Please model this.
Amino acid sequence: LFNEKMKFHGTFRSYQQRVLDRANTYLKDKKIHVVAAPGSGKTTLGIELILRLGKPCLILSPSITIKEQWASRIQSAFLDENEKIEDWVSGTIKSPKAITTITYQALHSAYQKLNEIEAKTSVIQPEDQEDDDLANNQVPDKEDFSQFDLFQTIKDAGIQTLCLDEAHHLRSEWWKALEELVKQFPSFTIISLTATPPYDSTPAQWQRYVSLCGPIDEEIIVPELVKEGSLCPHQDYVYFNMPTQEEKDTVVKF
Model:
């Protein structure tokens, strides 16, 4: 499908190459699940896995900004200079291409046949959190899915690869749409990429996550990025405090 018109222009980092070398083993269950620290190039890794699978792919992201980063990365690091990005990549499920990149919110809207505003904000925020982007008067995307057949469109487009970017902590309605999609297409090969697995979730939530994405196959850890000088700048805030008496009693009892 992609042949020489789309291939990586650079050199993979050692930890990216490690994942790629082991990918066929991980994909025996048709799922590959990679945890990658910020700055590790998980988008690049995801694109390469999509190209190696060689089938039309649907990429799901938690926000429009991240959705657009996929298309930008494909164009800058993979696409032949003589090719047009719009011939290969679509930003709407209504007009799928070889690679279609949308948000989880758009999937939900299409699944529910809704006419909804898709704001430039993450879908993983709490239900009661204000939509900061709309509050700041940024222009949202709007699509009308009222007469749209999601599953038939995916079938007609021959989509066989599903790439899940940060598929965790989604609102329950987005989970339902995603799970129904996977149920409708059991032959999908699923690529799951995240920097922050929901380790702090309940056992039921974790099981739901793993049943969708598969067990974690590889983890690209922070020391590897420090070694190669590619760690994404960030800050961690640590608050020191003494446990309450009730907490002490619980620890002692345990």
Summary: The chain has eleven helices and nine strands.
